[in-house]
Amino acid sequence: MAEVVSMADIEATAQRHGIDLSSVDLDSIRLPPGEDFGIKSDDDEDPHQEDPLEFEAGFGNTIVVDNLPVVPPEKFEKLEGVVRKIYSQIGVIREGGLWMPMNPETQKTLGYCFIEYNTPQEAELAREKTNGYKLDKSHIFVVNLLDDFEKYMKVPEEWTPAEINPYTPGENLQQWLTDEKARDQFAIRAATFTEVFWNDSRQLMPDLVYRRQYWTESFVQWSPLGTYLATVHRQGAAVWGGATTFNRLMRFAHPQVKLIDFSPGEKYLVTYSSHEPSNPRDTHRVVLNIFDVRTGKVMRDFKGNADEFAAGGSGGVSGVSWPIFRWGGGKEDKYFARIGKNIISVYETETFTLIDKKSLKVENVMDFTWSPTDPIIALYVPELGGGNQPARVSLVQIPGKEELRQKNLFSVSDCKVYWQSNGEYLAVKVDRYTKTKKSTYTGFELFRIKERDIPIEVLELENKNDKIVAFAWEPKGHRFAVIHGDGPRPDISFYSMRTAHNTGRVSKLTTLKAKQANALYWSPAGHFIVLAGLKGFNGQLEFYNVDELETMATGEHFMATDIEWDPTGRYVATSVTSVHEMENGFHIWSFNGKLLYRIPKDHFYQFLWRPRPPSFLSAEKEEEIAKNLKKYSKKYEAEDQDMSLQLSEQDRKKRKMLQEEWEAWVGKWKQLHEEDRELRVQLREGEASDEEEEYEAKEVEVEEVLEVQEEVVAFDLDED
């Protein structure tokens, strides 16, 4: 085959031979058989061969809406108007951004259209909201991103088996629980470093386990059972695990993630991000992903405007309450729910769909909480119609959505619900208006969840006009504490849901008068509580034994911002975070109020005890151990004695070293003093003794001119 000849070469050759190409009839030229001079004829191509499709990148803001009605030209404008109305509610469609192709032969539409938005986020939201949209019985929309077609076209024609990697055993993620010294770990974040320590109370100092700079870009968070440590990055979140190595176990891709939340059983991780809208008048766009922690797979995602996720909760970002999803059913992670306008949407994790494919309708519902142990929801509906429709608290069983108990409440200003950790009791703090409507007073509705028909008891304080500063149940117990009062030093009262004399009625145990406290921190094991005075009280601490109703110790951590018990209830950490510029760091205390050690840390952000999973021991076994504690504690008392002797020996060696350093320092200066002896004798004009009592005192008068001042004096002269 001849080489391809350019047109410039042909023209040059023709001119050289005196041929005028404009007078040549090119159609009359016939090439020799089999010769094409490198130019392939269109007639020689295989008509059945498909051209390879090429896609331009950057169509992420365009969607394809399929299964539209096929209409003639006279109905085209009407159909376009309907489609535009549906999709312009989700985002701003670009000018000329709605294109509905037509069949040139029939002049009818082809049953699909392209819609181009200003941003990829709007296109993604449109796909999420309208895929499966039912226009009528015969036309259910199928919506895809235009970028997805390239992905679909690259799917190979033939199936190839997945490559199976050989099994390599990983680190035991619970190994840290087998520490021979029965120590607990904690994580801190200060400046650019995140560190994990053992709390070594015997050595009276923390023992470093792992240290890493720039480990996270915002915060770290332990999973509820302590298996994982989560970090947050611009590209998403990651979880790490182990006792000492902290290898990365899984990544979760979610750009610009701001918040994360684990399910109680650690099976799932919820990630949240908020994105600026293209139109400043619109609200932020929210993206939520629910990942399987072990596989990293997205089990369900939720997208929408911030307004759709703004109801309920205790605080978050951009007007969205957090956590948006609340988990129910205990450690099984069986259900999760979120509140909406007049609904509570409850999902089950087997299929990640709504239970019974519909939400629980509750008109004007304001808030809800799950029982910590059972699939029971406590929901609150405020008072409506100027008091004609009372407020109410209802208990609803899931998945049957059966109402177990309801209590109507009148003249209600506000309500707050507190579950006891075992799900045995529920306290509802009710703020009510007085008859004049000018002020409020507070009482409690106490539900006994485990008893037949769920009886309710009303508790009012002796002075019902007292302001409630704080409320807290005893973990795993039957007691609760209330801080109440309007003055700068409120009272603290302790109550029990059962006593030896009256098991079915709430009774007051004691009231502590005029305490510098505004927060309550029960030990996770119960029995003990820290009465804390934060903020205006500057870190006042009182360690109180509720069994004996006596104060064990008092202390102070000046400017303390946070208090947290370790998971065993043996130690308490108090800290001053970077909300204050000074005094940053943390203190570790024993349960009875002894300050064990203090660690200063500049730019201190977080202190987090590593949680422990529940004990495998039954309640009966734990009770038996508590009764025979002296027998079990002999081994540990011997270890403590050995450690005490070891510490005493260490202290003795330290004191001896300090004494030797002191004596060496004194000897050095005595030597220098002796070397300067001759100089001192000269300065004393030959006096040899350094003893002060041998000196002879002499009085010497010294005259000194302090000031010279000139003054002009005027004289009167008599003229004779």
UniProtKB/TrEMBL annotation:
Residues 30-50 are annotated as: Disordered. The keyword Cytoplasm applies. Signal peptide: none annotated. One of its GO terms (cellular component) is eukaryotic 48S preinitiation complex. Residues 61-148 form the RRM domain. GO terms for biological process: formation of cytoplasmic translation initiation complex. This is Eukaryotic translation initiation factor 3 subunit B. It comes from Phoenix dactylifera (Date palm). The gene is LOC103703565.
